[in-house]
Amino acid sequence: MTSQREVSPHTARDAAGFVEAMKQLKDQTGLTYRQLEEQAARNGDVLARSTLADILRRSSLPRPDVLAAFVRACGEGQHVGSWLDARERIAVISPAASGTKPGASGESEGDAGIGALPETEEPTTSRQGQRKGRTLAVASVLVIPLLGAATWGLLSRSSHDSGDPSALARTPADGWVTIRPARNPDLCLTDGRDRGGAYASAVAVQLACAHATVPRTYLEPAGGGMYRIQWHHPQEGKGCLTVMSTGPVKGMLEPRNDCTHATLFRLEPAANESAGVFRLRPSTSGRCIGIVHGDTAEGAEAVEERCTRAADQQFLVRTSGDAQ
């Protein structure tokens, strides 16, 4: 396969040029729409061939999650961030060229069927949250250095326990954070096991923050208002939370060493944005992360589920202020 370096999304001046770059990338793979759909499924993504064909016939920008799935299916997963950044640049500087109507969500009409908000949601609030998320992502790329390469020995574990209200973020904080159920901020999403004992590997559960000093959590901007949720463990190394698509813990979150194919999340302001309350929405489905059965007990698993306004789908994202 020809290297993506020969098909740079950053040469595109508008949405039409961006779609043309996508066409060139597809042509270089030699894969059919059906084969790209099948490859995306093997990657754990959803990329309907009819949707992709429609996108490549239009001159408007695809949704970020569809774009990420497409680039990964083309075998260029290591460059997903670059494509998302290029898409964001065009969406910000030339909304008319990207097919965005005033007051619209910023996504092309042809992609409404993938990752769309449930009909029970309030589109105005959600769209405002998406626009704010995109603005923050652009600023993060320009001014905030990524700390993902820091070694575990340089990190202060005590910062993971920070409960200082001043650490609350008005917008999603990237860098070292804790993610806590808003209804019980003494708990943190962290490393645990499914309570049914059906799966030997770690999954995300809620435990007392005071006893959950490892792994550390790092929120990495991925472009397009999306984030990767990294876990850094002194023995296991770095893993990125991924929604399980099959198996006995389907829908739960597992840390995967392959961060390139990890799930991207949109952090959407929830009930009270000023208090730093967010909903975690996987880009692959448009659903929400909650706590299984709304359970408040320690050890309850995080799980992907239909979006509601239930308290179990609201999380505080707090910065770990003394991390270096």
From TrEMBL:
Residues 95-132 are annotated as: Disordered. The chain crosses the membrane at residues 136-155. The keyword Transmembrane helix applies. The keyword Transmembrane helix applies. InterPro entries: Ricin_B-like_lectins. Keywords: Membrane, Transmembrane, Transmembrane helix. This is XRE family transcriptional regulator. It comes from Streptomyces canarius. The lineage of its organism: Bacteria, Bacillati, Actinomycetota, Actinomycetes, Kitasatosporales.
